[in-house]
């Protein structure tokens, strides 16, 4: 990173014309100088005055900060006895739970690596991820166990007791409740020395050219993220209570709520899954101050605002943080009309940037409609012309590149993808078309990458296309994002039948639905005689998108 003090940076936009780089306008923070340090130790030593760390919304169970660290000590001791060592991968396949932060912090304290998977995934999807990440232990629930039938991996159930009738075909070694009973006083634990640059997490990011890719983030990457939460917190707001209704297996839920808020001393109320009624009831019951959402849920709140305001007391709610996709100015205005006392704070981040990117932190920043906020602290950005590679200036649209202490180490077992995404100077090519305005605010215009955003979930078209091409009656296929007000976008397929086939859309929809998680399912099919492609054979997806939209 360049020595900022020697550069001539425009204080308004953060842009430096000498190197065509935008610098964060937020006050930078130092990272720990001790190289031999793991993220769990770093968080546990962070000064704050919080009392309650987590609350289970369904049971009301509270976990204080002291109970949290005692639990981490117990679970890490049990993991050590099970032979978990530095560099081992441990996979968590479970809905949100008060146990997930404990497990994550325990695994990382040993220098082992956390990977996560959506519990709604199919057996095939689990098998693909496990073959790539090679975990040595699974944390999951009895509901997921049948999908793991035949797996030789030892399993720890995130439940009070083993449901033997559901788990006969797998190897259950213990439960989280048994681990939490572990006495750690005077216990000698086998633990390797962990360094900031060691891998800590292996979260999977949806790929645009094939299977999902494992994103390797280091302990230092996570330290940058967690320290930013404390750095950006505002003591004048008083004690903050957040709801976690977004999935903890995703960087949003994992980074912000499983570990991030711990450096603030904030309370986090955990919902096992999203349910509008349960979420709003929890806001009222626990006097929640901040609520994270994705755009489709915000839309539902706007549409049902009159009913919601009559039924629930949302007077404690100060702000809504919205990520996953940009909000339209119209939707923001409609929300502010219905809920004038609640700020909407948009943000932007990626798995590859370990949850860093841009954010809104004050009511004044929230007035920048259409923006996703200012660059995160310690972050640099470039706007690059995707055709010429030229670095652009203020108010010019191009691909957003990011550089800073939170940028991933790379993709697991995929040097080609790593080289295509990270350049030799550490710049992360986001694949998003953006610009920064005169005040340094980031605006996301479009995606250069071809991901479909369904209710905030990322759906890779290439994965669905590969499945369609495996059907014996299909000769070619292309999948595009189809715009939808309720869900944001859903997958639509353009399909070329093989000669002599008259297959209809319903069998194809069923064929894909049986092999993917519900959020990846194709919702619409159109049959064509050919798929438009460029001379090198790449699908001209934007032509198909224009065709689909023209028929709305």
UniProtKB/TrEMBL annotation:
Q: Which CDD domains match?
A: 4CL (cd05904)
Q: Which SUPFAM superfamilies match?
A: Acetyl-CoA synthetase-like
Q: Which Gene3D superfamilies match?
A: 3.30.300.30, N-terminal domain of ligase-like (3.40.50.12780)
Q: Which GO terms describe its cellular component?
A: peroxisome
InterPro entries xrefs: AMP-bd_C (IPR025110), AMP-bd_C_sf (IPR045851), AMP-binding_CS (IPR020845), AMP-dep_synth/lig_dom (IPR000873), ANL_N_sf (IPR042099)
Highest taxon listed in the record's lineage: Eukaryota
Necessary cofactors: Mg(2+)
Q: Which Pfam families match?
A: AMP-binding, AMP-binding_C
Q: In what residue span(s) does the AMP-dependent synthetase/ligase domain sit?
A: 48-412
Q: Which family is it part of?
A: Belongs to the ATP-dependent AMP-binding enzyme family.
User: What is the name of the protein in this document?
Assistant: 4-coumarate--CoA ligase-like 5
Q: Which organism is it from?
A: Gossypium raimondii
